[in-house]
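Subject: two folds for Thursday's group meeting

Dear M.,

Sorry for the delay on this. The cluster queue was jammed most of the week, so I only got both jobs back this morning. I'm pasting them in the order they finished. Each block is the input sequence followed by the predicted structure tokens. Could you check whether the formatting survives your parser before we put anything on slides? The first protein is the one we discussed after the seminar.
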Amino acid sequence: MGERFPQEPADEELLAAVRSALRPPQVPEDVLAAARAVYTWRTVDAELAELSYDSAGSSRPGAGVRGRTAALRTLTFRAREVVVEVGVTPDALTGQVVPPVVRAVELHTTGADPVPVDVDELGCFTVHPLPAGRFRLVCTTAGGERIVTDWVGL
């Protein structure tokens, strides 16, 4: 009764097979590198609007020296001939695209779906309520070109 059949696996062999089956697959480094490269190209057709001024700090982003905080925080993003001005109030973002070439704006925040924002004929928009955490704006012109701002934390 206590005999084992030759084809019956030992408990350790069976546990090793189960562990192997449950272990996550190992992805080769070259495949991971290719995936990262594809991800970085997702906005290659978009013009990056870099932060050129933030009233919460210096006029040079990343300078590391803070001045006095303004009552209304203002952010200025530049992309070639287009400027995106954003004012931060306690409960909303108000902004304007100059010149008013943008026909659509989306608010992107970390961990959430993009939110469409109404833009008027002067390029003015309001985001209410104020986004929590980091955000960026994706602006689309009448010609379909995209302008993407840097990520900014509030």
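Second protein, same layout:
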Amino acid sequence: MPNYDDIINMPHHVSKKRKPMSLKNRSAQFAPFSALKGYQEKINEINRINDITNINDDKLDKNVKEYTNEKPKTKI
């Protein structure tokens, strides 16, 4: 693995044309961002629909259990 002796003690480059960037602006470069516009909203909508579906499935399961526990109403 190289040890970079040829460049380790070189001076850091400072631009003569541009001012140094503020720490606030530098840190903003690394802030989280949404790469796909509307993606999170779509995920939230899918989760909302799934929650509704699960609630309905639970109610359906309850109704099926109640129905299967009933005694037949007709006699033979």
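Two things I noticed about the second structure. The helical segments are 23-28, 39-69. The longest helix spans residues 39-69.

Cheers,
T.
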